[in-house]
DCA17 factor (Sinosuthora webbiana), 523 residues
Amino acid sequence: AGGGRAALRACGVHNVCRLLSRRAHGFYARDAGVAHRKNLGLLRKIMCQESTKFKNVWTTHSASPIAYERGRIYMDNYQCCITSIAQQPRLIYQKSKCAKSEKIEDALLLECPLGELLPSPSDYKASLIVLTVQNWLLRLSADSGEVLEKVYLAGSCCKFFRYLSWDTPQEVMIVKSAQNKLPAAARQAGIQQSVLFYLAVFQVLPLSFIGMLEINKKIFGNSVTDVAVSNGILIVMYSMGLVRLYNFKAILDQFMEQPFQLGQEFNWNGQVGIVGKYPFGLPCNIKITDTPPLLFEASSLENAFQIGGYPWHYIITPNKKKHKGVFHICSLKDNALAKNGIQDMKCCSLEPDWIYFHPDMSGRIIHVGPNLIKVLKLKEVKNHADQMEIAEDFTIVANRENCVNNSVTVTASGRVVKKRFTLLDDDPEQETFKIVDYEDELDLLSTVAVTQIGADGRAHLDFHCNEHGILLKSIPLKESWDVTYSHEVYFDKDLVLHIEQKPNRRFSCYVYQMVCDTARDDD
């Protein structure tokens, strides 16, 4: 606070908003992050220059899935790690092939928090949290693959933990089981199964156990199909499209029977063991005995439900199949539909359009169709401060022509009849948007557009100004793009990485690096 007042006095600024604005633009050289912001600004300018190219520097193929996390490429079920930051990707570590019982089901990258004292020197380096098929939670060094910590999850309660996710990114982690299903013989014998899912909750760095709870039919109902936890909210989804939200922290506080620490000896419900050690695992110490207070519920087709914007709004699709592709944007406060809040591109396509809140925290909304990307914003209705409307911020349009095919037929009398029909909006022979992403450090919106002629598909990655949508750079991808395959494209500062999954579990990875050699236009 004293430093802030000194800065105000030194520059003659007496308004906090002006000070923050000047600070964001790098007026104060001693502020943390100024040099980093300047460097990223320079990188963005260099990247968008006409002379800057992206060169395919490395290609590999694999019979197992390929994953990418923050400059690291993982192969062979995370047994092989390759850095993509070097001028040409190189091996970081290669572990011996693991047994099927040690297969990794899911993984999360864990990065050191800034400004915190941690108990172990290894905590200050990036690590990988992985979940194995045998219910072990492992923390691996991102540099060597060495096991730093291990926790056994499943005691007598659950044998099938399968999914990792963040409640609060880089702070609170959720480990979720597969849905509990009785064998057919047990169901025929009339045996009832009331527990649907188990959730184990951890604080990370240092790794500590918060608790484990069960999602039970007797509490949440018979038609529960899935659950998730995000930003302190327990999200319960039902077969009829219903989505219900509960306060997850309040559930932990209210129904926690006894706290436990990893490595602690315990005597729990007749069991004696050590928390997180084999064979006892973790105790189910959060018992929900009554339905928690409901925060919010909505009905949406296929349980599609998102919250964002400012003030808070949510996006749903009316819960009827005929409304697929129609999105309603409503106020979370009173469920009121925003003015112009029904978004419908009226696409005639095989793949549906999609919509989501912009990840740049601006409160905007991105709506992506086959040939059109709309960036929308929430704003107050004129003369009605309590009502919001959806307005168009900017659009990005695919580079295509109006293609109308003529089908010519001749009748028995010799009369020529012409039938006119329009191609599908996502016909592969027309340029179609397949991926839209946001690079937060460079503040660029990236799009992948594909055109396929015969068996040969061509894709290009475009960078757009995130504020106005102006096209700044276009990068052609060298490899052929088949629209029937599964594709992921990562844009990470000066790196572009394309992962492709072909039939019969064949995977390919293409790495592009930024080069500024004007003398070699072919690169």
Remarks:
- Residues 13-48 form one domain.
- The radius of gyration is 27 Å.
- The first strand starts at residue 53 and ends at 62.
